[in-house]
Amino acid sequence: MGTNLSSTFANPKSFGFTLIELLIVLAIIGVLIGITFSGANYLFKAQQEKKGLSDIEALKLALEEFKSEHGDYPRTDDLSGDMQTLPFLTGQRLFQALSSYVDESGDPYANPLKRPKSFLKSEALTLAEQEGNQIQEVTMDFTNSNTSIPEYFAIDPWDSPYVYDYPRRDGNLGYLLFSKGPDGESSDFTKELISPENIDMDNLPVKEPGNW
Which residue range(s) make up the domain with 148? Predict the structure, then answer.
C-alpha cells in the first residue's frame, strides 16, 4: 500500500513547529538570557566591591605602619581646594606619603636616595593622575628608585580617587578613608550621621573609620 502524500501534507502538525511553539521557545530563551545577564552583572558588581574593600584594607594597613614609623598619619590640613579638587590633592598626599616620597607633613625627604621603603605592600592598587578634567590610569614600578615625586593617587573600581582626610575637617577623631562607590556621591561628613537617611549606602565601607 502506498503512502498517502496528500494526507501527510494536509496535516500541519506532522512536522516542524507551530507559531505558538516558536514564541514559547523564544520567550524561554529571552528569560534565560535575562537571568544570565543579571547574574553576570551581579558578579561584576560584587567583584568591584571586593576590589574596593581590598584596596581600603591595604591602605589602612599602610597607614598604621606609617604612623608606627613617623608617629602620626599623613596630614592633609595644609591642603585646600573645593569639593571637586580636594579629593585629588589629598589622594596624592596619601599615595606620596605611603610610597615614602614625603613625610607626614608632606615635605620631601632631605636625602631622597635614603627615603624609607614604601609602606604599600600591594601593587594591586590602580593608580591614576589628573590631566585637566580627565583621570588617566598609570603604571608604576614600586621598586623604582626615581627621586621625582609623582602626582599619582589610588582610584577605586569606579575611577574616583579614594577619599582621605587627616585630621578630619568634620572635627571627628581618626582619619577619613573610603570610596564614594558607584554613584560617585558620599555621605555628609560635616555632622554626625545619626540616621540611616544621612548615609550614602553605596560608600565603601558604608560606615567608614571614625566611630560614628
Answer: 54-198
For 14-24, what is each residue's pLDDT tens digit?
556 788 888 88
- Looking at the structure of the chain, the number of domains it has is 1
Q: Residue 49: is its pLDDT beyond 80?
A: yes
Portion of the chain with pLDDT greater than 70, in percent: 80
> Does 189 fall in a domain?
yes
What does the DSSP assignment read for the chain? ----HHHHHH-GGGSS--HHHHHHHHHHHHHHHHHHHHHHHHHHHHHHHHHHHHHHHHHHHHHHHHHHHHSSPPP-TT----TTTHHHHHHHHHHHHHTTSB-TTSPBPSSGGGPPPPS---S-SEEEEEETTEEEEE---TT----S----EEE-TTS-BPEEESS-TTS-SS-EEEB-TTTT----TTS---SGGGS-TTSBSSS-SS--
In a domain, 186, yes or no: yes
The answer to whether residue 131 sits within a structural domain is: yes
Yes or no: say if 115 and 101 are a contact pair by the CB < 8 Å rule. yes
Query: What's this model's pTM, rounded to 2 decimal places?
Result: 0.74
Classify residue 106: in a domain, yes or no. Answer: yes
Binning pLDDT at 50, 70 and 90, where does residue 45 land? Answer: confident
| pLDDT at position 61 over 60 | yes
